[in-house]
Amino acid sequence: MTQKLRVTVWGENVHDKKNETVAQIYPKGMHECIAEGLREDASLVVRTATLDQPEHGLTEAVLDQTDVLTWWGHCAHGKVDDAIVDRVQARVLQGMGLIVLHSGHYSKIFKRLLGTTCSLTWREAGEKERLWVCNPGHPIAQGIDRYFEIPNEEMYGEPFAIPNPDEVVFLSWFAGGEAFRSGATWKRGNGKIFYFRPGHETYPTYHQKEVRLVIRNAARWAAPEGSRWIDTCPNVPVEKAAEKIVAQGPTLHKAGEAGYR
User: Are strands 167-174 and 179-188 parallel, antiparallel or unpaired?
Assistant: First the structure.
């Protein structure tokens, strides 16, 4: 029997409770809407977690039982505890997939893993967004035609201060003329990362079938491959070297010394 893929949907759940427009579009919260889209695939087991829960809902136990984590944040990036960011980063390096959505480009975890500011240009005018498929053969693009459109969205435009992606799956064009790398992938350690641009909270983007399909595809693509990799820095004694060697010269430190692993 094939084991089901375990997905945790993380969301701030701040705008959802404080903004009337957002609450009307997402009465159960954006995180629950994203989770509902994922649950359309019976092979996925989906749970949710939010900022206001103890440890932001991302306890060691939860992350240990998470194969893929989705992340949506906007107004409360600074309220995410650094210890939780450390914890999520470690799991990504071990092999957990990470899907970063929309304004999650400025989240601590995304900037940490990519190592850049992840800044961009933007405009909130409810304009049309057309997402072009750059790689029709990519698993994340399966079931999508040459492009699909979102009637009303917030514009994100280049330059997008990210390291060169391993792959660009989608490229967005906006009615105002801007273009943006709206679906991009990276590998960090053993983990796969996918950034997907659409999802401004005042528009019903996460109800749209194409958006839901992309996120489901991305979850399957980001699934861990092989066994979990644990990041360590072990000392290999001379007597355990693959070839026989004789130690020469002074040594700077000893295994187990403070500051070394």
Answer: antiparallel
